[in-house]
Description:
Helices cover 42% and strands 18% of the residues.
Amino acid sequence: xxxxxxxxxxxxxxxxxALSGKDGVSEETRQLIIDTANExxxxxxRGRKSTEEEAGTFVILASEFAFSKRNFFGEIYLxxxxxxxxxxxxxxxxxIDHHASEQLILPPILFDPSVEGILILSHITxxxxxxxxxxxxxxxxxDHHHPDLKADSILTNNRYAAYTAVQHLIGLGHTxxxxxxxxxxxxxxxxxxxxxRLALYQSAIEYNPLWxxxxxxxxxxxxxNAVQKLxxxxxxxxxxxxxxxxxxxxxxxxxxxxxxxxxxxxxxDNGQLSRITTPLTTTMDVxxxxxxxKAIEQLFWRIDHPEEPFIEILLPTHLIIRESxxxxxxxxxx
Length: 334
């Protein structure tokens, strides 16, 4: 498609629309593209589909790691599948392994003429996502974005959510608040660090880099070794996800602290781990089903408006207060 677009000096999206029988190009341009495709030996499904035929296919792409996070992305997928079915769209799931990601090997399904749109869950790699969007197929990113990616994104409002979480801790009287999360892993985690810093700034609390573990590996030994070396422990922790919240909880107990009597913890996502810790963890709730609904809505909009500027949609969160945070009069270290 790019070769055809280059020869005719038009967009790849116009080529895709013409060859798949979609609206968006004039009949004269459509015929010119079809003639050029035939001349260049391009194989495609000719003509528009009748209403009795398959209405179209949406493809969901994600890394093997993302698909392994079933509690997080499972609910998003179920919502996507439900919304797509309402609109008579078939869903195809495609896992991208490390080799395909590194070698920029696109799955064959993307070259099926029935494919009308792509949803990408979380991040794969920026070059790989660029290769996907380079097909000209309308694409929406879910829970990921990057300045170099030309696609719409459905995102959690990470900065404001983190700000809310840390403000909750500050409201309890905490001024020694730690941060833990790997900001290299996801732009979302970097934004949560920004929200953490904004909350401290707004409350005139000094930022202490010794309490910020922004390259934390989500493993018990790494978290324990980092935290136990601190000369002065924070009285509260903001964790970028529930997994790290669970680990901080375990580390605090190993170091002899009680939660919430000595240390308060707030995590993020309201996943299963926040609901099985002892005590239960205060967390920022993300409406995963809403993610799916908004992603499908945006993909349909993008299909109908291929030339409109790319946009980011920020979805709200809300704080669920559980036993891991408490009023400061009960905390002996405040």
